[in-house]
Amino acid sequence: MPRKRYQERLDELREDVLYMSEIVAERLRMGMDALDVKDEELARRVIEEDAEVNQLYLELEQDCVDLLALQQPVAGDLRFIAATFKIITDLERIGDLATNLGEYSLQAERDVFPDVDAQRIGKATLEMLDDAMTAYAEKDADACYEVADADDEVDRLCEDASAAVMRELLEREDVTEQDIDDMMADVSRLLLTIRDLERVGDHAVNIAARTLYMVENDDELIY
After folding, report:
1. Domain boundaries in the chain?
2. What b/e sequence results for 152-176 when a residue is b if at least 16 CB atoms lie within 10 Å of its CB, and e otherwise?
3. CATH architecture under which domain 3-216 falls
4. At a CB cut-off of 8 Å and minimum separation 6, what does 195 contact?
5. DSSP H helical segments within 38-74, as ranges?
6. Which partner from 8, 50, 101, 207 sits 20 to 30 angstroms from 23, CA to CA?
7. Run of H or E including 148
8. pLDDT digit string (tens) for 43-76?
């Protein structure tokens, strides 16, 4: 493959990964919206359209394999392809977590713990994902560290939300056995939502870590 075409393939790969990230971010927004307003139609769209994310992942995975196998890249190009291979895996998993939100939305009939602001956590993780992908697009090493720092705040929000759920559960009085059964289902769903949003933040950090490795050959954020 001529050098010019090879560079075009690398540029196309970067653009396709950014496109995949836009699709994944939109699915995550849809999942949060469906959970917020209990929109069954929107929830089912999130679930059904996960197939598009999976297909994009498979296509980009093959592109990475082809570039590695056919071009035998070295140095910066090798780090770019290797990092990209990892990043699309994180994006695919975020897509799966968005699908989980759609499924939780179908199970949620009411807000039993209105003081727990899952939407705030979701917004914070979406910002982390957007910042991580901007760092990837712009090869911005400093922004990678900022994404990692932002994860500390998301972790704190998740810890506070989980503690609030358990505290309110313990403080409730005069509940029947049936109330307890229904409540425990709601508690489980909400705690799973918090856990999955925290994982979205973790995947955003992974993307930032791989970007830092790609840009500066620095594995400091990889864990």
Report:
1. 3-216
2. eebeebbeebbebbeebbeeeeeee
3. Up-down Bundle (1.20)
4. 158
5. 40-48, 50-71
6. 8
7. helix 141-171
8. 999 999 999 999 999 999 999 999 988 877 788 8
